[in-house]
Every structure is written in C-alpha cells, then in structure tokens.
Amino acid sequence: MNLLALTIGTVLGGSSYYTGSRSVRTFRIRRYGMRLPARVTEVDSRPVGDEGGIEDDVKVRFELTDGAAVEAATSISLRGPTGLEPGDRVEIAYHRSHPRKVVVLGYPSADGVGLLGYACVLFAVMTVFFYWIGLSLD
User: Structure pTM?
Assistant: First the structure.
C-alpha cells in the first residue's frame, strides 16, 4: 500500500509539473510577449475526445523588429476547427525566453490557462496527500 500511494503521488506530481510549466509558459508569452503580425505556414488538425472535437497546432513565420525571421509553433493547441490555412495572416504574441513557441491571438486555446492553473493546484494538493498517506503507513 505504501508503494502504491507513493507511485500515485509521483504520477500526480509529474502531471502537476507538466501542466504547470505549459500554463506558465503560455501565460508569460501572452502577457509579456511582443505583438507581431505573422503568416501561417502549417496547420495540423487532429481529432480529440469522444465528442468529435478538433485541435489545431499552427506554425507561423514572422519577422522580429531587428529583421530576423523566426518560425515557431503554438504554445498550446487551438480549439478547432480554426479555419486557418497556410498563407493566412494572424497576430501573435512572442517572447524571447521561449523562441520556438507563440500564442496566436484571437483564437481560443485548447487548454485554458486558468483551467491548467487550477489543475496544477489540485495535482499538487493530491500529491502531498498521497505522499503523507504513504509516509504514515510505514
């Protein structure tokens, strides 16, 4: 039982870290990033969930203020179908601390930043709970 509780706590802790890091990255890009025009270069649509939902991963190409050309992908998938096609112009948020990730503005993301934050807190609380149970069973 002790090993099971510690294993569940470890899995939840890993999920918390992954979820939280994506949430923080997306929040920082959206909040503090430069707003730039970009051109869509690729759209990868894939089905998700049982209800027939679609997520779009979008790659864009844009120029920084110093003239350097950058190609980057969305930080978190967009709820689709977005209707975006290669060649379409979009506005993005870009932050130099995450040079290969952008947030496409004006389109809802597949994972809301608030929801990810709440999930991160829930996973962290559950991790501490399962570690506490595991240690108390010794």
Answer: 0.68
